[in-house]
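1st attempt posting a full record on here, be nice pls
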Amino acid sequence: MLLMLASSSLQAFPSDRHKELKDSLPFTYERFVKQGGLKTTFSTAFTVYQLKDRIALEIPKKALDRDILVTGQVVSGYSAFVSNASGIVRFRAGNDIHTLFMTRNRSVDVQKDSTEVNMMEAIRSSNLLPVDMAFSILSEGKGGKSLIIDITNEVYSNGQLFGMGGNSALSHPDPSRSGLIVVNPVTDGVCFCLYRSQTDQQNVTMTDKAEVATTLGIQLLLQLLPERRQVMKTDNPFYGFNVVTRQEYDTHTYVSRRTDYACHWNLKANRQIVVYIDPVTPKPFVASIRKGFEMWNKAFSAIGYKQVFRFTSDASDASLTYNHILVRWGIAASGFNNQVITDPVSGEILAARINVMDAAFNELLPQYYLQCRHIDRRIQQSLNDLDVRKDLFAVLMAGEVGKVLGLKENSIGYDAYSPSQLRSRSWLATHGTTASITAPLTFNYVAQSGDGLTAADLLPKVSSYDMDAIAYLYGNNRKAPSDRAAFYTYIDHLKNFKAEKQHLSSDWITAARLGIQQCRDSYLALDKDMAKLPSTQNSYEDQRKLYLSALIHYQWYVTNVARLVGHERILPVERGVNATRYNYSSRSTQLAALHFLEKEILTGIPQWPMTDAATSVSNSSISEMMRGVTVDIYKRLLDVEVIDHLVSAEERLGKETFTSAELFEFINRVLFEDFSETKPVPAFKRLVQANVVPDLAERVFANDVTLNLGENGASVLHSYFIDIANKISKLAKSHPDSATRDNYHLIKMRMERSYFNKQH
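the predicted structure (as tokens):
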């Protein structure tokens, strides 16, 4: 029935009936093209007609039911906007000669078996697919081989075709201050260049508003895509790929499956990806941009692709067209970001845009100075050394290119190699510092002066994981990454602020020890070394920021070690690759972490930060800052999620693992002096207790166990809190040392306010 319906909808009108309907159109072709003042723009696929403030598009009938790329982007003005409506559309004949339908490619249910009848093609032919837009036909083209439709509203206003209204600065343009500049032909398409202006009310102060005018230059593009076939690759959970999801039906076995397919470019038939580099890009960084792309050539060469990228700054390549990557300068406030246009049906990456700006260096260069100046002498003379900036730019660019090629950010990228490997020139020359260049940029801070390393050994490279990922996406590799430690993991630090960050190496403790050693040496020499910098980089404020940044690095190192306690990582499971879904820190590792923390900071703050030079420029107490680090570590050790992981590990691994009871014993000994009835508690620990215990009371209250069943982190932590509360209440009355007794009494009152006397 579907085939019959499909074929009936495609039957031609009888010639006399067709002529009658054709005559009912607003224009004949001859009358349409003879209108006075008509301006025509031709391309190899479409023709655009302009008459005063009206715009019409001529679509060849042979282009109906063909893939057409539609893109919209801001090209001037402080905005990196690319329309969410950018993607593939198809024009198809409507129910009569007066109407042309437009539908968008969308993820659909598909028939997966090899039966002769293709269900989805029949549905398409039967006009049962949803219609996104309908256009009224103004006229047929010459010889009836094309259709002419009015697209004035789509170009000048916020129509659905290009979808530019998604940008708040383009949501209500003023027609009197907006206009079309030019229509340019592109390969098999047309590009509309225009500007839009609008005025918005914006807050100037807390109570006052002002009218702010905005004008943005935009490009709107229609391009007929070539006939092509995308080789679809099923997703692999051990890599991080962007995916499209399809519901597939097998009518032989009556089975339905949801399948994820990895997104990638179509490089078959020796197609090159054209990389347009914005000509306003400062000349030194043009080479860095090219280098960022060329870092991936090794990965493509290994699977048989030569010269995947073609670079250009020609204005004819500046549009967001098929198989193009636009690198735009100056509209990426955070440094680097990208937007990728993908076919949601096949997963083909059609075009992309990378926005770059040197704002990223505002934070990176001081960090690089602190961690790497003992090896890279270029940064010793100037924080803005151009060669250093170019090197950092290239690495940041390579990370964005990886994401545009279809890879997700692999947050575990800095958790694969040992400190000894990260201090070996031969290893670093091949692998770089990270398991994936898509990971957030971190420098090789475990490198020491005597290792014989150079500046190139401090930065990431396209790694073995990245090579494997490219071989899977674009080649014939079907295996998991060769480096098990590089299995894909994504950490959203905005949502999971407790997650580890800025760590380097699979051995977090050794890396932290080396990092702290380097941090201390750098900190103590900072006053002397900054004297070598230009006066414009050695102000009082510059010194203060670098001293505080060094202390922040120290906090990263010790906090990451604390995260080893109760650390849980969930991995995908596949036969013959990975047999265990849950990966926990070993017992020995957690014991070593606690020993490290006890020696480093839990029993007293380190004295090396208390230099006269640092104290003179700091606006706050360094000792208070360091004590705050200690409090933060205890809070992390007593987090509900940490205890829950310890309980889960004990349930799965038994006594082979480190337990929550052992953690509580450690805290009782180190923080509470085993609740001794005679031994005074040192002043440092009293201050820490007064911050940690009330915070624990609030968190236990927030995780009310009265509704919880079974042995989990919340109930275990609740039991521990009640135990220490009872001991503190006793010592608040009986401890012979007045300072210790008074402190416990204060803690007791705060516990009553935060938990015992609080309404449940």
